[in-house]
Amino acid sequence: MEKTELQEWEDKCIQEEPPPCMTGCPIHVDARTFVKQVGLGKWEDALKTMAKTMPFPRILGRICDHPCESTCRRNEVGEAIAISALERACVETAREKVRGVMLPRKQTRVAIIGSGLASLTAAWDLVRKGYQVTVFEPTGRLGGNLWNYPESVLPPEVIAGELKLLEEIGATIELLSDISGSSRIATLRGEFDALFVGLDTVGVNCNGLERDDKGSVWCNVLTRGTSMEGVFAGGNSIRNGRPSPIYDVLDGRKAATSIDRYTMNINLENGRELEGPYPSRLYTNTSGISPLARVPAIGAISGYSVEEAMSEAGRCIQCECLECVKVCLYLDRNNGYPKKYARQVFNSEYVMFGRAHTKNLFVNSCSSCGLCETVCPNNFNVGEMMQRERRTFLKKEFMPPSFHEFALLDMEYSNSQRCALCRHEPGRDESAWLYFPSCQLSATTPLEIESSYAYLREKLEGGVGIMLGCCGAPARWAGRDDLFQEAQAAIRAQWERMGRPRVITACSTCRTLFQDNQPEMETHTLWELIGEHGLPPGHLTNNGATVSITDPCMARHDGETHRQVRSLARSLGFAINELPLSGEKAECCGFGGLMFNADPALAQDVVRHRTTAIDPPDTSYYQPTVMDNDYLAYCAMCRDNLAAGGKRTSHLIEQLFPAEGLGDPAGRGWISWTERRHNRAALRENILRQQGEPGGAGAEEHDRITLVMTEDVRRTADKRRILESDIKRVIDHAETSGRKLHNATSGVYRGYLKFGNVTFWVEYTPVEGGYRVHNAYCHRMNIVGTKL
Ligand code: SF4
Ligand code: SF4
Ligand code: SF4
User: Fold this and answer.
1) CA of residue 439 relative to chain centroid, distance
2) Does ligand 3 lie within 6 Å of residue 185's CB atom?
3) For residue 29, which of 79, 84, 85 has the smallest C-alpha distance?
4) Ligand 1 pocket, mutate which of 22, 73, 289 (most atoms under 8 A from CB)
5) How far does residue 37's CA lie from ligand 3's centre (Å)?
6) Is the CB of 120 under 6 A from ligand 1?
7) Ligand 2 — pocket residues by CB below 6 A?
8) Distance between CA 385 and CA 732 in Å, rounded?
């Protein structure tokens, strides 16, 4: 990934952008952190936060005209945080003195005329940057207009105490200085390397500086430069018709930056767009936040008491975005947000060997569901970023096969002679339509597919062919473009051979991938056609039972299907209780992107959060919602995963074409990987038989073995992605080769066999007619020899 590309990804995520209170402050006080510290009663820390960007915080904290409050996002839900009153409470409560960092002394000399807030700020900033600063003040004390504030607002001892600091850090102060002469500015300019003129200074003679239409000294708004080179000016700021201390400070700060640049011969204007207030790019969702009015100040004469201030600070929303993290357990679990993740993913240091596994796991655990893109104000699609990275890993041979092997083998099985077929309708040699029910639906509801196929043949004209197989989604998610293209090319070739019929899909993933990769293929959904041609006769009736529809993540942009499915659900007698995350905000079930393969624990947690109300929640931002009623899915994997998590979930096809003898579809529960494979093969056999063809895929040698397994052992093996056929192969090998271990005490045998990259182990005992399996596990170790 090129640096510029990383930059593009990073720029999309605005989580690190400063909040509106900070960008609305002319000198960018980090009000969010400050308010948080006040809320925690950390007064010294809060004062330090103010002092990071604010000169003389004990003065300004009492008199700032707080433009930040008008940009505070709390305004949308109640009233703005009383930042100014909190600053006052802070400077009255915190005891420590704050001076900040000083840079080494330079030889460059700067003259400052006057000592109002603009002049004082310029002097303060320049001394701290190492300049030799001399302040020329016409009166007998520093502070200018500051002395005009009532004592109750700004006590004289506070002014004196704060301004003493200026001398203490090294400024030279010349009081009672005569600055009224007509050539005084020009003379000082000749004696010093640069000059700042405080425009609020009583008696200053600005002869030689050009004036604007209103008669004020003309200054460049960005740099505060005047018409005389090396002379800068500011102060006397008016905002909303009133003097503005904080804009005086901004003038002084801008001038100090310019003087710094000017004396070092650096361009005065470049890169200064974000000085002063600007609109924040940070997005903060305020929906769901209760409106709250300001805490009234009644406890102290001068403003908030300590308790009142802390309570007022508690109203702060602590603005941030994290919209994507709130809806994604994967993002929440990794303790960051996409901008940070983009840096981690592409930062070359992160690829160092020790951390390669962590990075691999991180890149491969995202379900590529795209929900982040939908909720992000800037459409950051983490899934897309991770998909790109998976391809890069493959190219660089970083990708361990373990992450996707099981899913790719499952896909291979679906497209093998055991499960795949493509035929015209029995008795016809042409197809106007082609039913592609998907490998996952074939794996879970084969009987319902047969019934739906019969329905389509009855309702549609011109012949309805059928194609069984996998659309290639697992390869795509695994970053295996080669395998994906191969699968799509095979489908395309068969579709061409069938005469380019209209394709009927029952899985949103297949449909999306066909639409994206086979633009000439006209696709329709099974749900759409049933909506058009009427409910099948044997459908279930639900008498107003409530369900929540779990839209598949791959259908998030398919509003038409969302509507059609809901309409069918209502026709089936359901009342719909919408999940907060549905339709275009649908959550993934943990199958997408092969999350379940790369990070089974995370995928299980996704299911757990979607099916069980966890109290107290074990997440930071992610807010799952579980409804008490049953769920209705129209994706086979959603149905299976949610059912495996214990949630009563049925598939729409089970409601429309209920299979005899299977009972309540929402009560069917989980379906093992072994059953899934068996179902796919059986569906093919049945369809071929209906066509008058022999099935003929044939059984393998080890298939004759009978296994006896408890439900627990079956579930454990299934979770470890060990198929019953794998177990049979191991036992067959152990028994025929004699290579097995025997535990003389328990009587249990242990056999092993490596196929593919994996070594499988099975603990078993022979029983009447078969073998009792006690345990099965696998790993990626090679057994290089046996010590007898
Ligand atoms: S709510 Fe808090 S963080 Fe947000 S803008 Fe206001 S003060 Fe700043
Ligand atoms: S799992 Fe989905 S929502 Fe979460 S980061 Fe990946 S694509 Fe985005
Ligand atoms: S939604 Fe996520 S990716 Fe988008 S800006 Fe917010 S934190 Fe960043």
Assistant:
1) 30
2) no
3) 84
4) 73
5) 25
6) no
7) 328, 330-331, 366-372, 382-383, 588
8) 45
Q: How many residues does the chain have?
A: 788
Q: Which atom of ligand 3 is nearest to the CA of 321?
A: 6
**Kind plus residue range of the DSSP H or E element containing 736:** helix 724-737
Inter-residue contact 367 to 590 (CB < 8 Å): yes
pLDDT of 18-74, one tens digit each? 999 999 999 999 999 999 999 999 999 999 999 999 999 999 999 999 999 999 999
Give the HSE-up count for residue 222: Cα atoms under 13 Å, Cβ half-sphere: 8
In 385-505 the beta strands, taken as DSSP E runs, fall at 421-423, 433-436, 464-468, 502-505
DSSP letter for 192, please. S
- Residue 172 to residue 135: CA distance in whole angstroms: 6
Q: Confirm if 174 and 141 have CB atoms less than 8 A apart.
A: no
Atom 2 of ligand 3, nearest CA residue: 324
Given ligand 1 and candidates 16, 17, 21, 320, which is best to mutate, with the most ligand atoms within 8 Å of its CB? Answer: 21
Can you state the percent helix, strand and coil of the chain, rounding each to 5?
45, 10, 45
- Averaged over successive runs of 10 residues, the pLDDT of the chain (788 residues) comes to 83 97 98 98 97 96 96 97 97 83 90 98 97 97 96 96 93 96 94 97 93 94 97 95 97 98 97 96 95 87 88 97 96 93 72 60 92 97 92 82 86 93 94 96 95 97 96 93 95 97 97 96 97 96 96 95 98 97 94 88 93 88 92 95 94 96 88 91 92 70 86 92 93 94 93 87 94 91 56
Cα–Cα distance for residue pair 430/370, rounded to 1 Å: 38
Angle of CA points 758, 761, 766, to nearest 5°: 145
Distance 318 CA to ligand 1 centre (A): 6
Residue nearest to atom 4 of ligand 1 (CA): 319
* Nearest ligand for residue 345 CA: 2
Spacing, Cα 270 to ligand 3 middle (Å): 29
